[in-house]
């Protein structure tokens, strides 16, 4: 039973709405990647603005409007910096944003300074900094295919785990953090991830199948960890979803939880193998 009073059964969500939204988002992503990489970067920046706003609303209590504005400005700047100047400018923009947070918060007084600053820096790290690695990936040779590959691999992990967990799940991985995440679901994630990884690596990148298996396994672990991190954050805050912006999914960060972790892992692994 959800907070709307509707029981969606063992799948735990409005499956038709979730499917429609998921397909629509994937179509928009593909269009932005293959029409013009700049469109993907712009899309990423807009998405991160929404993600940052969600995190502001649920993580930081009593943050002033001036601080909220600073975070809303810094978040897309970090993402755009990755596109303009690569890893070095991404790091520069992130550090500059941290300094902006430290300095701006001074004007709101000493009360809750550490609370506001540390949580604001966490937001900048968790959303825009990690998302910046997806932008770095898009700027490489065959960048559009690399971004699509890492998104499909992450989606395969989520989908495999979701289906296997809903149908066969009995043994929880972390019952105190995410009761519905099971070892059976994790096995489903690995199986589908390996299949997709091999297909992508052999058919798109024309590399050895074992590389696709290895990358698939690592991204399965990354997606699972990302899911657990988001779950423990929401459990700590006492909320079910980050927001209700996306029907059947929750908030933007409810969809980005695995992707932001895997963005860095994909950037590193693709750099090694491709």
Describe the structure.
- There is one protein chain.
- The protein is mainly α.
- It has one domain (14-273).
- It has 8 helices and 2 strands, in the order αααααββααα.
- The chain has helices at residues 15-35, 37-59, 65-104, 113-138, 143-168, 183-204, 209-237, 252-273, and strands at residues 172-174, 178-182.
- It has a two-stranded antiparallel ribbon.
- A hairpin with a 3-residue loop joins β1 (172-174) and β2.
- The protein is globular, with a radius of gyration of 19 Å.
- It starts with 14 loop residues before the first helix and ends with a helix.
- Mean pLDDT is 89; it is low at 1-11.
Q: How do the strands and helices of this protein lay out in sequence?
A:
Layout: H1 15-35, H2 37-59, H3 65-104, H4 113-138, H5 143-168, E1 172-174, E2 178-182, H6 183-204, H7 209-237, H8 252-273
Antiparallel strand pairs: 1-2
What are its keywords?
274 residues; mainly alpha; two-stranded antiparallel sheet; 8 helices; 2 strands; 76% helix; 3% strand; disordered N terminus
Short description:
With about 270 residues, the protein is mostly helical. About 75% of the residues lie in helices and about 5% in strands.
Distance from first to last alpha carbon: 45 Å
Strand fraction equals under 5%
Number of strands: 2
What is the number of helices? 8
Order of helices and strands: HHHHHEEHHH
Q: What best-fitting shape do the alpha-carbon axes yield?
A: globular
Q: What Rg is obtained from the alpha carbons, in whole angstroms?
A: 19 Å
Q: Structural class, from secondary structure content?
A: mainly alpha
């Amino acid at each position: 039973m959800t907070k709307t009073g509707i029981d969606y059964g063992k799948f735990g969500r409005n499956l038709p709405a979730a499917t429609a939204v998921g397909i629509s988002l994937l179509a928009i992503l593909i269009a932005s990647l293959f029409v013009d990489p700049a469109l993907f970067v712009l899309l990423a920046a807009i998405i991160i603005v929404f993600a940052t706003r969600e995190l502001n609303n649920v993580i930081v209590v009593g943050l002033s409007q001036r601080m909220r504005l600073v975070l809303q400005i810094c978040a897309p700047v970090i993402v755009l910096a990755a596109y303009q100047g690569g890893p070095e400018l991404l790091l520069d923009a992130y550090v500059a944003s941290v300094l902006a947070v430290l300095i701006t918060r001074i004007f709101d007084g000493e009360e809750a300074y550490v609370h506001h600053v540390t949580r604001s820096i966490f937001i900048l790290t968790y959303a825009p900094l990690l998302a910046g690695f997806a932008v770095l990936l898009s700027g490489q040779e065959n960048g559009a295919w690399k971004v699509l590959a890492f998104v499909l691999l992450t989606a395969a992990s989520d989908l495999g785990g979701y289906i296997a967990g809903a149908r066969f799940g009995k043994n929880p991985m972390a019952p105190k953090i995410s009761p519905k995440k099971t070892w059976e679901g994790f096995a489903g994630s690995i199986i589908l991830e390996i299949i997709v990884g091999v297909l992508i690596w052999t058919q798109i990148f024309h590399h050895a199948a074992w590389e696709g298996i290895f990358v698939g396994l690592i991204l399965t672990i990354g997606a699972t960890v990302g899911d657990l991190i988001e779950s423990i954050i929401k459990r700590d805050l006492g909320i079910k979803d980050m927001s209700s912006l996306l029907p059947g999914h929750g908030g933007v960060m409810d969809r980005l939880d695995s992707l932001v972790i895997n963005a860095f892992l994909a950037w590193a692994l693709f750099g090694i193998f491709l």
